[in-house]
């Protein structure tokens, strides 16, 4: 076993910054550092760089540049979309629809709004994590002002029928927001064709810098400001812009959407090689999420009779970085809300592993994981009295 080998397979958590992105950003830390609101040449060059990045983001999702607003990340974009639409349209109604498997940036924001007098319906998903469209339709009332459904799930990788959801919302005159943080660079997106009114994204998920994101807001959609201040972002988000970060986001999204088909083909081939190997070499293993309608680099599997936290620690010792369906590392003993929503019992949800592949992963990485992972799972099972009883034919 090569203990020095490092295999990073947690790209759904964050990605490295590509050299081309860093190169584009560097001048805006040291040379082109002018405040974009300043009228002199240095400031105007900074303003121009921001507008160029805005055009790149708009082009990547089929939007207009004036519909793109830069934020401090995906969570801020989600908060702005949900709170902004809720408060701006409160006179029309107070009902919001979302799903049970959303990111906590959505779920916790909706929980906050419930305390402000809003009503929220959390729509179910099937065993593959796909939204129940009939339940969605039946949840709509004359008070419904917003539907927010994520484009692709961050844990199990399932891609939702976004165009259909958008059509349902459009027919009823309801604003439709999607958290597309995991989807950018992995799925072809056109906000007009898909009837998307608002869309959130974050640069660090597609090889850009952390701490910068964007919110697309279709022209004509009314939302309140989340951050009040000066006249930045067309008076919609106060505060001096994160100039290097915005430039980096623009370059990163340009690279990420240049050849999605080619990128997906390569990543999907690696993923399938890894997934098939895991299912073949490790018995009592279950794939979580839709078998086909899923992000190209996402693998989420549950291993019976083990705890995910122990699995992660042993993988870490072998230089393999992934994540688990158990939230132990965040101080909670509760398993993932996503895995519970698709019907997994607690004990199986606790034994889950997410591996998310990226641009630098190779076949050698896959083979290394396939060599190490089965041994670790077996080691953990050998320590489990539940597994021992199971093997002996007990219950």
CATH superfamily of the largest domain: Type I PLP-dependent aspartate aminotransferase-like (Major domain)
The CA-CA distance between the termini, in Å, is 35 Å
Broad structural category: alpha/beta
The largest sheet, given as strand count, sense and whether it forms a barrel, is: 7 strands, mixed
Give the strand tally: 13
Helical proportion? 40-55%
CATH-assigned fold name of the largest domain: Aspartate Aminotransferase, domain 2
Number of domains: 2
Specify the number of helices: 15
Poorly predicted ranges: none
Query: In CATH, what is the class of the largest domain?
Result: Alpha Beta
SSE run: EHHHEHEHEHEHEEEHHHEEHEEHHEHH
Reconstruct the topology from this structure.
Layout: E1 7-8, H1 19-25, H2 27-30, H3 41-61, E2 68-71, H4 74-88, E3 95-99, H5 104-115, E4 119-123, H6 133-139, E5 144-148, H7 162-172, E6 175-179, E7 198-202, E8 213-217, H8 232-235, H9 243-256, H10 260-281, E9 285-287, E10 298-303, H11 308-317, E11 320-321, E12 323-324, H12 337-341, H13 346-349, E13 352-356, H14 363-382, H15 385-391
Parallel strand pairs: 1-11, 3-4, 3-5, 5-6, 6-7
Antiparallel strand pairs: 2-8, 7-8, 9-10, 10-13, 12-13
